[in-house]
Amino acid sequence: MKKLLIVLFLPVLLFAFKWDYTHDFILKKDEVGQIKVIKKVDSTVRVLILRWTLYQNGRLVVLANYDGFPTQYIIQKEYKRNSIKITLRDDYGEGSKRCYLILTFKTFNDSKKTALMRAFVTDPQKRIEIQFIDPKKSKG
Question: Which residues contact residue 89 at a Cβ distance below 8 angstroms, ignoring those fewer than 6 apart?
Fold first, then answer.
């Protein structure tokens, strides 16, 4: 039995996926979280702006604006409905070499009215640098 478990889980341990960048955003309604994407070749900066506008029936409406292209997503905590994928650089055709961001909806805190979203970025060819910018917290 032990050998069977080792055989089943060995590939998972050997080929576990490692993300290049991860970050948790805890956002209130209409608070803006930003992700700066900086190309290492020419220092070109693109900005991904994230915010959420509505949480109802376990669903979160997320507005994303990347490089001037606004999009809207509805995500929830169910498997395969809890994440969005945004390609950060599309200047090469092979899918395994693209860098992209996965934004996952983790939890919603009803008492604080905040949503926890986790950002994962992968860049197989190490062609970008990422900076996460959290919203300014007001004092008082």
Answer: 37, 39, 98, 99, 127, 128
Q: How many CB atoms lie within 10 A of CB 15?
A: 7
pTM for the full predicted model = 0.81
- In the 3-class helix/strand/coil scheme, how is 84-122 assigned residue by residue? EEEEEECCCCCHHHCEEEEEEEEEEECCCCEEEEEEEEE
Cβ neighbors of 140 (< 8 A, separation 6 or more) are none
The Cβ of residue 59 has, within 10 Å, a number of other Cβ atoms equal to 16
Q: Which domains does the chain carry?
A: 17-133 (2.60.98)
Tokens 């900005």 sit at which residue?
A: 47
Can you tell me which residue has the tokens 């959420």? 52
What is the per-residue pLDDT across 46-103, written as a single tens digit (0 to 9) for each? 999 999 999 999 999 999 999 899 999 999 988 889 999 999 987 666 777 889 999 9
